[in-house]
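STRUCTURE:
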């Protein structure tokens, strides 16, 4: 009985360390120079624009996702048609493959040193330079599934990387 609680405590402690250390490091690196630089970063015109753009896209996508999700669910449960397994697989695919893995795969194939680096797609998958605090700021300003962020708005305005 005592060993069971020790094993649970050890497992939960390990899980807490694995989760809290990276999150704590991101917060520490973001706020190491104080709150003023963070506030200055998130109140720039590009960041405010990205925030409002995220809200607009979310207001459009969430109702559409709900409508088409319910229709797809009803079709899968009640209908008999060819391609039902394909539709089910396409719906399950985002749960099976992490967006991080997909992003890394695209970067490895189309990135600067990738197999298809010479194609025009390289611009879409290049990794810009960034400051340590940008990670949290960009994560906070991105919409669901990594929507537009301030870096993209800067490039659209013609500005280069910082």
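SEQUENCE:
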């Amino acid at each position: 009985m005592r060993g069971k609680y020790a094993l649970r405590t050890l497992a939960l402690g390990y899980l807490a360390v694995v989760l809290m250390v990276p999150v704590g490091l991101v917060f520490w690196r973001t706020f190491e120079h104080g709150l003023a630089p963070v506030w200055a970063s998130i109140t720039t015109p590009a960041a405010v624009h990205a925030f409002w753009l995220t809200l607009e896209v979310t207001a459009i996508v969430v109702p559409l996702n709900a409508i088409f999700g319910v229709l797809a669910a009803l079709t899968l449960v009640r209908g008999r048609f060819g391609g039902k397994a394909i539709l089910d697989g396409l719906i399950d695919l985002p749960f099976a493959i992490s967006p991080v893995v997909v992003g890394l795969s695209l970067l490895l194939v189309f990135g600067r040193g990738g197999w298809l680096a010479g194609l025009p797609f390289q611009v879409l998958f290049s990794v810009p330079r960034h400051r340590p605090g940008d990670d949290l700021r960009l994560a906070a300003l991105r919409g669901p599934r990594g929507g537009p962020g301030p870096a993209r708005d800067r490039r659209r305005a013609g500005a280069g990387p910082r």
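REMARK: Confidence is low (pLDDT under 50) at residues 143-151, 153-157.
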